[in-house]
Amino acid sequence: MLRFFFVLAVVVPWTVGQPVDLEREIREAFNLGGFPSLAVAVVVGDDSPVMEVHGWADRAAGQRATRATQYRIGGLSKVFTATLLVQLRDEGRLGLDDPVSKFLPEGVKLPADPRGARYITLRHLATHSSGLPRNPVSRTERESDPWNGYSVQRLYEGLARTKLAFPTGASGRYSNLGVGLLGHALGRSLDMPFEDALRRKLLAPLGMSSTRIAMSPAQLKSVATPYARQDPSKIVRAWDYGCLAGCGGITSNLPDLRRFVSLNLRAGLSGVEPVRGASLTELHTPQRIWDGWSKATGLVWIVDHTRDAGDIVWHSGGSQGFASWLGFSPRWKIGVIVLTNCGRPVDDVGNRLLRQALKKYRKLSPKFRAMAERLVPHLVATPGDKVKGLFHEDFLKDVPFSVLKNVLSGLAKKHGACSRVLRVDPADRPELANVVFQFADLSLVTGKMGVSEGDPAKIVYLRFGR
What residue spans define the domains of the chain? Predict the structure, then answer.
């Protein structure tokens, strides 16, 4: 239950903002960013009201990018690996705190530090707290492709020579090796390659038929040509992550990723398939807080805390010739996907577009306006006792009715009677709304209001002023 709090109002400045034009925002991001192509989708629940693609999939061939154009999503692949992890946990095939060694051949040596956890678990890998370095020590470091189809043999040999960056569980540091190893272990838990496990458990049930790792020559024709970060006219070679594809090897497109976002927006609901709603919530819930307490790591996902939208759950990807960003608000069920075929990061573009999408698509229950309008006749110099019926009994336990009447009459004595509800906007919490009342002297007074569920609805929270 909300805490019931009530204070004397003050007049606060209020202006009507400009309408949000997401299509224009996307065009400007494309034109100013110097991207060969830019593909963007806005997702609201199961719908995608905006899906815009600009530019070239292949400059030399004169081939324009379309919604079907595929992009390598790089590090964004990691969130698919984490999703498979909780699916297999829910099936009883493994536990988040199982040692990763349980799913590797006997004799594979993993690094350890006696100052940390006894062993590296699947959870450590999914929260970047294993202590494993960012990349394998046995990468080729070839400029064209440092992964070069990274083999299982090189993985196991490299692990034996690896030193932890910090004791397992003692801290956190982003690790491609860690999440790549997690994907490899998940595949082994099912006695199949990681891609087959991912397709069977997640991609096929979601209808994500254009999302894959290994690609035939015919399928490669639908993938955008990769261009250099510094020179978007120069073609580069895309990376092949080999057995560590779980950290960056997935290729996808806007329609498929829209399905994945819609799945994540159903977090916390019952009857969600192929991933339980509770498990989706678990993926998005902070597991490790970063310095400053405004950012955290969930199970692979990164969680930013904001005042106006609550938690923003996101991840980005960057590999040679491609960049991606996917983020959403679990509270408001709105998400954004951004893809491009050059190495220039699109994080800023994604964050900005998500903020704009939240402004445009956040929807409040009509109960807020209905209750605000019922309150208008009582914002007068001498409110009657009937106003008491608008308020929840628990509210009136915190705020004596005599105090409530004094505050309502005080507003009217200062500004004249209330004439109308001018606007109802989302507040910093989804159970509240900011209501702008207009009074006889044309003053605008903002009140933050909470309304109970059920019928009849009652006011459970009301605070005027800052």
Answer: 34-361, 366-464
Summarised one tens digit per residue, pLDDT across range 247-270 is 999 999 999 999 999 999 999 999
- Of these ranges, 134-143, 169-178, 289-298, the one predicted with the greatest mean pLDDT is 169-178
Q: Is the pLDDT of residue 18 over 70?
A: no
Output the pTM of the full model: 0.85
CATH fold of 34-361: Beta-lactamase (3.40.710)
Contact 113, 164 (CB under 8 A): yes
The 10 Å Cβ neighbour count of residue 382 is 10
- Given a contact cutoff of 8 angstroms between Cβ atoms, the answer to whether 313 and 303 are in contact is yes
pLDDT at residue 308 greater than cutoff 80? no
pLDDT tens digit sequence for 99-113:
999 999 999 999 999
CB of 324 closer than 8 Å to CB of 303 = no
What is the CATH T-level fold of the domain 366-464, as seen in this structure? Nuclear Transport Factor 2; Chain: A, (3.10.450)
- Report the amino acid identity of residue 381: A
- What does each C-alpha distance from 113 to 137, 157, 168, 175 come to in angstroms? 18, 19, 7, 17
Average pLDDT of the chain, as a whole number: 93
Asked whether the CA dihedral 130, 287, 271, 81 is positive or negative, the reply is: negative
Mean pLDDT for the stretch of residues 352-367: 92
Higher-confidence residue of 338 and 291: namely: 338
Q: What is the pLDDT of residues 361-390, one digit of tens each?
A: 988 889 999 999 999 999 999 999 999 999
CA nearest neighbour of 36 among 52, 55, 51, 53: 55
Angstrom distance (rounded) from CA 132 to CA 162: 8
What pLDDT, on the 0 to 100 scale, is given for residue 261? 98
Q: Is 207 left (phi over 0), alpha (psi -120 to 50) or beta?
A: left
